[in-house]
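Quick one, probably user error.
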């Protein structure tokens, strides 16, 4: 068979031919960069070190992308919470499934920051002043939505009206777990009234009377499949969150050792104590009660 003419080949000279139908005139059309507002996004990385240190861009991009993912996590968790309130369990679990994938990305992202050596970070750490990830209001909002609430965190954000509003709303609203328990109650499960009427502005604490309820769900998974599946999805969320916290801790230890944090915390010891925080303790406690 004769060779195809040069202009008919899909790839010639290691160059892909641009199809005639491809739009190239964006003088009056929406473009990729316009839709994503890339000029704003890509101009938001402004290193402060002088002369500019090569690795400061990495540090900024790492934290900015984390905040973008946290924005999506918060969006999905709030939607899941609202869907549970409306007894829409299946779409709520779809939101949770998406969050789990985002959590995996966030955890793996620490490996990029871990390429920053102590010597490299020390050369621009001073320009951060007291800026610290501790001050991430979106991270705190995610914790609040999952039930780990702490009103004492709010003063950190008093200078930021938007952050204060987001956190106050999350503090005062039922958590994802609260709404799941309320859904279980509406479905006929014996959730104690004291749990259903608890002060939702307080951090969730272990409720031993819930363990027998979950034990009954796990004892007959076929009969209680929807509740059982949701329990396991929540365990996945907490497990992923703890992996993220642990990876954060180990990255900090790798880069600054036992130095205090820029925001005034003790650094690694403070992060280590976060591993003792929990969202759904009854879903772990029930495992001890399952025979076998």
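Nope, works fine. Designed sequence:
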């Amino acid at each position: 068979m004769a060779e195809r003419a040069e202009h008919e080949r899909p790839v010639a000279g290691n160059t892909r031919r641009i199809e005639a139908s491809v739009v190239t005139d964006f003088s009056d059309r929406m473009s990729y960069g316009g839709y994503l507002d890339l000029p704003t996004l890509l101009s938001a990385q402004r290193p402060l070190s002088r002369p500019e240190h090569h690795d400061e861009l990495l540090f900024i991009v790492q934290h900015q992308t984390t905040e973008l993912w946290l924005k999506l996590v918060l969006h999905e968790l709030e939607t899941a919470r609202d869907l549970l309130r409306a007894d829409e369990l299946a779409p709520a679990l779809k939101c949770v499934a998406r969050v789990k994938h985002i959590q995996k990305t966030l955890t793996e992202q620490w490996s990029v920051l871990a390429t920053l050596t102590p010597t490299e970070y020390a050369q621009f750490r001073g320009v951060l002043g007291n800026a610290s990830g501790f001050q991430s209001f979106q991270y705190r909002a995610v914790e609040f939505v999952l039930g780990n609430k702490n009103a004492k965190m709010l003063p950190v954000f008093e200078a930021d009206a938007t952050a204060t509003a987001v956190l106050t709303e999350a503090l005062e609203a039922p958590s994802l777990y609260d709404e799941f328990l309320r859904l279980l109650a509406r479905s006929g499960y014996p959730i104690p009234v004291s749990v259903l009427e608890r002060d939702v502005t307080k951090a969730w604490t272990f409720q031993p009377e819930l363990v027998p309820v979950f034990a009954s769900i796990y004892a007959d998974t076929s009969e209680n499949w929807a509740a059982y599946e949701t329990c396991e999805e929540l365990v996945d969320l907490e497990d992923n969150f703890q992996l993220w916290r642990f990876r954060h801790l180990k990255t900090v230890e790798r880069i600054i050792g036992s130095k205090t944090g820029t925001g005034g915390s003790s650094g690694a010891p403070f992060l280590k104590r976060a591993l003792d925080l929990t969202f759904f303790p009854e879903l772990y406690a029930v495992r001890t009660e399952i025979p076998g």
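The chain has a mean pLDDT of 96.
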